[in-house]
C-alpha cells in the first residue's frame, strides 16, 4: 500500500487538521516509512511463537492494606483557613 495525497487529505479531514504542501509531503513520507516498517515486521517468522497477552507473569502485585494512624478530623480542621462545623470551606469551583 502506498500513501498518496488523497489518503493524507482524508486522514487530515477526519482528524480536523490542515497541512500546507510541504507539510503534506512530510506527512506522506513519514506514513510511507511507517508502512515499510510494518511490512518488515510481517516478514519475521513467528511460527511456534505464542501470542503475548501480558507483559509480565506477575498477577495483582499489591501492597498489603495496613491501617495507620493519621491526624484526626479536629486536628486537620485546626489548620483550615475556613471551616464549617466538620468540613473544610473552599471557594466555589463549578458554575451552576
Question: How would you describe this protein?
Answer:
The chain has helices at 5-14, 21-42, 73-78, and strands at residues 83-84, 87-88. By secondary structure, it is mostly helical. A hairpin with a 2-residue loop joins strand 1 (83-84) and strand 2 (87-88). The two termini are 52 Å apart. The mean pLDDT is 88.
Topology:
Elements: H1 5-14, H2 21-42, H3 73-78, E1 83-84, E2 87-88
Antiparallel strand pairs: 1-2
- Structural class given helices, strands, pairing? mainly alpha
Task: Please provide the ordered H/E string of secondary-structure elements.
Answer: HHHEE
Cα radius of gyration in angstroms: 28 Å
Q: Strand arrangement, largest sheet?
A: 1-2
Q: What proportion strand?
A: under 5%
Overall geometry comes to flat
- Under CATH at level 1, the class of the domain at 5-42 stands as Mainly Alpha
In the CATH classification, which architecture of the domain at 5-42 applies? Orthogonal Bundle
DSSP helix fraction:
25-40%
Average per-residue pLDDT, rounded, comes to: 88
User: What distance lies between the first and last C-alpha atoms, to the nearest angstrom?
Assistant: 52 Å
Largest sheet: 2 strands, antiparallel
> What name does CATH use for the topology of the domain at 5-42?
Histone, subunit A
In short:
This protein has 96 residues and is mainly alpha-helical.
What are its keywords?
96 residues, mainly alpha, Histone, subunit A, two-stranded antiparallel ribbon, flat
Amino acid at each position: 500500500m502506498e500513501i498518496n495525497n488523497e489518503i493524507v487529505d482524508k486522514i487530515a479531514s477526519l482528524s480536523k487538521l490542515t497541512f500546507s504542501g510541504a507539510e503534506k509531503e512530510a506527512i506522506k513520507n513519514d506514513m510511507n516509512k511507517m508502512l515499510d516498517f510494518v511490512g518488515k515486521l510481517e516478514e519475521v517468522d513467528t511460527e511456534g511463537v505464542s501470542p503475548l497477552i501480558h507483559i509480565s507473569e506477575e498477577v495483582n502485585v499489591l501492597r498489603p492494606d495496613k491501617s495507620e494512624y493519621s491526624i484526626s478530623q479536629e486536628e486537620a480542621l485546626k489548620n483550615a483557613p475556613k471551616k464549617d462545623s466538620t468540613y473544610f470551606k473552599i471557594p466555589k469551583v463549578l458554575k451552576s
